[in-house]
Amino acid sequence: MKTTFKEIESLTITSDMASLILVESLIDDICQSQGVDEDNYGNILIAVTEAVNNAIQHGNANDTTKNVRLDVLFNEGEIQFKILDEGLGFDYKNLPDPTAPENIERENGRGIFLMEALSDKIEFNDKGNEVSLYFNLN
User: Fold this and answer.
1) DSSP readout, 67-106?
2) pLDDT digits (tens, 9 = 90+) for 80-126
3) Lower Cβ count inside 10 Å, N or C end of the chain?
4) What is the DSSP letter of 14?
């Protein structure tokens, strides 16, 4: 049986890094209202802002005429953050390993690795322009 999540909040922002403050504020409000503990809060804050940052920079190429949508869904002890950009998407199945010796010195390429490490589950749509991050709150 597939778990059914109920949307509890939604936010659409322009692809401007200054908009991240709105995302952080939403995360604060959601975590407070859902009684999220400090450890989960930190993981959520870092992983979700990284996903939105990627959507702005890589998905929408910092094009302020394009938007990023953040949906927050909840189901008995689990919270889902769904981030959708208006970009072309990417091949999330073939990412270089950021821990490989040839990539250690690179300044980028760790965002998805970080999101995977901090969330309990990560999913992409087929196109690669939507990511869902799941966090167990129990």
Assistant:
1) EEEEEEEEETTEEEEEEEESS----TTS---TTSGGGTT-
2) 999 999 999 876 666 656 555 665 555 555 578 889 999 999 999 99
3) N
4) E
What CATH number labels 6-136? 3.30.565.10
Whole-model pTM: value is: 0.87
| Residue 120 DSSP label | S
3-state secondary structure (DSSP) of residue 52: helix
**CA distances in angstroms from 56 to 12, 62, 66, 89, 124, listed in the order given:** 12, 5, 9, 12, 16
**Predicted local confidence at residue 68, as pLDDT:** 98
Q: How far apart are the first and last CA of the chain?
A: 20
> How many C-alpha atoms does 70 have within 13 Å on its Cβ side?
27
Residue 1 has pLDDT above 50, yes or no: no
